[in-house]
């Protein structure tokens, strides 16, 4: 039975996430191999699409007959990617043969293909073979680069005939030479990826050879010990040679330039396509400096409130909690510390009510479901138009181990600062674990990029496709500034915390004056954050 790749998402016993617009995905790893028995909902493979990674589970009970793709190859949606024989019923002897076929084969010189015929009784056990003289036992040699594949014997339907079982050697150059199947749980596979360890090289100590968390950690510790020993030996040898060997007058040896080609990862491919389309948009940049002094005081007061709510009675709360967007707390709130980013996101949303054009998108072509006559009537001879959107779905650019991703906080206009911080914390954790869903990544109307948490004062951000504006946040810094003059007294020099906001806008739809006015609204809200109280929902 052909098993076609129709959807890519989370296949589970209780839910299934459909994805739209995905035409291909990369096979990351197979959890099965030809000859392995699978059951309904058992995992078949892990795939990576442009937007997310997920596991695909089997819909049938049966035996895997063919895998159409190797790890690293791109599988097309709607095309077969695995054959599962749902009619094959294995006997106990066949099941044993299938298990033996999955075991790794030791290395040795190659041998010729051998055939072995075994008579099988109705019960599946080997029957005696009269009139056949016994053959002398020959110790087989095992191929160094080959794997042994056995076809399992099946019980005959008429109950007495012999069934031939062929055991042969398959050349390693064939596409079916894969790594052995590894029994483990997804959490342990994730741990092996974190430590950049090939899990197939680890011998499991769990039941039926399962690889456990302890096996991964022990393997990593052993590899580190080997590496440190080798480094110490090399360092000792180098220092000794440097001590006893005189340095020539000119020891520089010209080196050849070496270029290595590496394919883009799925995340990089998605960014490549998206940014290529984005650069067709005519950008213009608007930057301004924003005073964060009042917001810093408000944030400090609110963090004290959150700490008091999260702390058990009589117990002091540590002030060294994460300074990120928020961490799951054990108290009343979902986060126990606020960063500046939720306040900025809320300020952008409040500005969008004054200037909804920043939340729009440019429509260059009429909808496929709209006739040409209707498009001409609506847009005036089929000209480009602006599509205004009611919800403020603000994307947040995040740097993850897999690359740049932009998850979206939905309906920011109806959220308060604490709700924004909680959703931001959830998206950050999912992004770093590679567990963002297509729903988390789609539907954005405007984007905020906080590059300042890494470094840099100014930035020229690139507008995301189907949006008309993006805000880049620089690094916060403390600068000297003139204080306000009070009752004619001499102005004093004070410390202020400032940050640069860099806006990019689509000049086809937004002029410089509109962008400047909208940016001024955001600046005033950030500099006087008490204004947010007037807009609580």
UniProtKB/TrEMBL annotation:
Domain Lipoyl-binding: 8-85
Species: Zalerion maritima
Assigned EC number: 2.3.1.-
GO terms, biological process: cellular respiration
Comp. bias intervals (Polar residues): 120-129, 161-173
Family of the protein in this entry: Belongs to the 2-oxoacid dehydrogenase family.
Protein name as it appears in the record: Dihydrolipoamide acetyltransferase component of pyruvate dehydrogenase complex
Broadest EC class assigned to this enzyme: transferase
Keywords per UniProt: Acyltransferase, Lipoyl, Mitochondrion, Transferase, Transit peptide
Molecular function terms from GO: acetyltransferase activity; lipoic acid binding
Classification lineage: Eukaryota, Fungi, Dikarya, Ascomycota, Pezizomycotina
